[in-house]
Automatic annotation (TrEMBL):
This is histidine kinase. It catalyses: ATP + protein L-histidine = ADP + protein N-phospho-L-histidine. Residues 1-71 form the PAS domain. PROSITE patterns: PAC, PAS. InterPro entries: PAC, PAS, PAS-assoc_C, PAS-like_dom_sf, PAS_fold_3, Sensor_kinase/Photoreceptor. CDD domains: PAS. Residues 75-127 form the PAC domain. GO terms for molecular function: protein histidine kinase activity. It comes from the Bacteria. Keywords: Kinase, Phosphoprotein, Transferase. Its EC number is 2.7.13.3.
Length: 162
């Protein structure tokens, strides 16, 4: 079973990690290393808090606290990580807590799926909808959508209204 788990862990297409109760990475798979831009050795010397986008950290830590108190068995959230290059990576994080035979918290199992492309597609769609389905005065349209309109106002479905 250990060999089977090891293979599943190492060959998974999504990032996987075993994380200590203090947030330090204990074991990381190659997919997580590629996602975050760090080597395994580099990740094992830092904690997940260091790589979490600051605005997402409180929510993550609240979930961690709820896991440790036994209020929840697992959690899932969308959050941002800071890639080694400094770029933001959107991820779907799923976490569960492993307890020892006495029921005491031992470590976390984290699965981290890259959703950056999906988030960018949603942003592009929303920007398109805002720019093409909302009435804006010409100056506001240029400021928000980055281009001028020729006549009057841009309105529903991109059709000018009189």
């Amino acid at each position: 079973m250990d060999k089977l788990f090891e293979s599943a862990f190492n060959y998974s297409s999504i990032g996987m990690a075993l994380v200590g109760l203090n947030g330090r990475w204990l074991k990381v798979n190659p997919s997580l290393c590629r996602l975050l831009g760090y080597t395994e050795s580099e990740l094992l010397h830092i904690d997940f808090q260091t790589l979490t986008y600051p605005e997402d950290l409180d929510t993550d830590m609240t979930h961690v606290g709820n896991l440790l108190k036994g209020e929840i068995d697992s959690y899932e959230m969308e959050k941002r990580y800071i890639h080694k290059s400094g770029t933001l990576i959107w991820a779907l994080l799923s976490v569960s807590l492993v307890r020892d035979e006495n029921g005491m918290p031992s470590f976390f199992i984290s699965q981290i799926q890259d959703i950056t492309a999906r988030k960018e597609a949603v942003l592009q769609r929303d920007t398109f909808l805002i720019c093409h389905t909302t009435c804006w005065p010409p100056a506001a349209h240029k400021a928000i959508c980055g281009k001028s309109i020729l006549h009057g106002r841009l309105c529903w479905a991109g059709l000018p209204m009189s």
